[in-house]
Amino acid sequence: MAENNDSRSLDFIREIVARDLASGKHGGRVATRFPPEPNGYLHIGHAKAICLNFAIASENEGGTCNLRFDDTNPAKEEVEYVDSIQEDVRWLGFDWEDRLYYASDYFQRLYDFAEELIRKGNAYVCSLSAEEMREYRGTLTEPGRNSPDRDRQVEESLDLFRRMRAGEFEEGRYTLRAKIDMAAPNVTMRDPAIYRIKKAHHHRTGDDWCIYPMYDFTHCLSDSIEGITHSLCTLEFEARRPLYDWVLDHLDVPCHPQQIEFARLNLSYTVLSKRKLLTLVSEGRVSGWDDPRMPTLSGMRRRGFTPQAIRTFCERIGVAKRDSVVSVAQLEHAVREDLNLRSPRVMGVLNPLKVVIENYPDGQVEWLEAVNNPEDESAGSRKVPFSRELYIEQEDFREDPPKKFYRLTVGREVRLRYAYLVTCTRVIKDNQGNVIEIRCTYDPDTKGGTAPDGRKVKSTMHWVSADHAVDAEIRLYDRLFNRENPNQVDEAGHDFHDNLNPESLEVLTGCKLEPSLAESRPGQRVQFERRGYFCEDIKDSSDGCLVFNRTVPLRDTWARIETAGKQHG
Ligand code: ATP
Ligand code: MG
Questions:
Q1: In the chain, which stretches have pLDDT less than 70?
Q2: Which residue's alpha carbon is nearest to atom 29 within ligand 1?
Q3: What CATH class is the domain 12-264?
Q4: Which residues belong to the active site?
Q5: Whole-angstrom Cα distance, residue 191 to residue 198?
Q6: Ligand 2 centroid from CA 82, angstroms
């Protein structure tokens, strides 16, 4: 049966969804949600959750995916985050249509549910302090003890809860707790707090509330209110699923969604925790949440990653039940693959060395045909100017060439891309003996780069006409951390701060670009031939002051890892 063939290739979540659809559970609907807490910017780990939730909705007819802000912690949340999260989800290519929700919109309904729990004898107001509560909770091996308030009369709890809401008590004086089982082997079930007093201003509800619901109470009820069918979350919530179900089972709710846990994404050489990323920002270790070295979606966007590449990456890593670390090289591989297809090729010299073609007529300029993208014929071609004075890369010339150095040296002929064969005749040095300029001759019969007599050269180099060159600043990025797992803490107390790569940013100024790039187009992505993929900075670049970020170099370490794997396997 075709159905069976399909399901064999499905991951475990899609299998559950397919089974539920077949059995008519959840009324034959599929409704998912992405529920970020607006306390930081989204990172590549969130992208995995976003892609998963929106994909599962769109793969099923009538499926929907909500964007819901899980905004129950007024102290850490900000409007800036709410805005950036929406921008990032949209940029990734997903559309929640008219389904934008806030847990804070449900505060009154959640409050009513809490009263219902109290009335049913399933919740009580407790006066233990935070510290006492920890003491009473017990440990993994020892059961907890009942709070002295556990058997408080319903009427009394109701009265206290209403007075909590009215603002009569200071923070920490009381909590509302679910009455479950202090001896439960699962610590989560030992009468968890579901409401606490917090006299904080909320970015949406202002000062309307001075009590706020806890995550475990809010999340399942928000899911139910929205008619979610499959509530996907990461593995650390597995132990809290019984509480998710308990709350829904003890209240009169619209529906009972199924919580399903999957492994979170971990990436090598990266930290994926909003808390840690926030420290990097607030301590000034990076220029902001959108620093192109950050694993945030805004950082990746600024660096030049495409949403398509990130989606492809998320599809390829799939979903599983077991934690693992994905190589950042795999992400870069997806980026490179996508950029290879879509990036126009241009010539840019990062570390310029002046070249004078001595036999080229002074003042003459030829506009030579250059292919925009060999991977894409429809991209066409452009003209680049060639003249007597050019720039090439410093590293493309060696006065004393080592073995296997096939680029320019005195007496050798090489090809200038799209132009001519040139031969280096001599070098010009400054007082300290550094080469500051080289002299060449060109062969006028080799226009386009081939010799009529069929003689070969071993290298082809990019170049830019000096008179026509546009100056630019180029920022070269490397990994932000120099350890595969920057989260590791050692005995000496070193943490992720100590694993920052001091060479993660190199700024080059006075770079020379071909004139087709003269006009600033922030966000444009190009390949500088032989150098890598670059993206014009969306913040700092402008006409006359161009700034390009290196997205990824051309060399693909992941492709080599894969080929090596194939050879061995
Ligand atoms: P962080 O650990 O970075 O603070 P979080 O889980 O606290 O992340 P939320 O805003 O609560 O951040 O996350 C929203 C959704 O994204 C949740 O469903 C969460 O499970 C998911 N998510 C967060 N980090 C990852 C990750 N690394 N891989 C996959 N999903 C993730
Ligand atoms: Mg969270």
A1: 1-8, 556-562, 565-569
A2: 264
A3: alpha beta
A4: 37, 264, 274
A5: 20
A6: 15
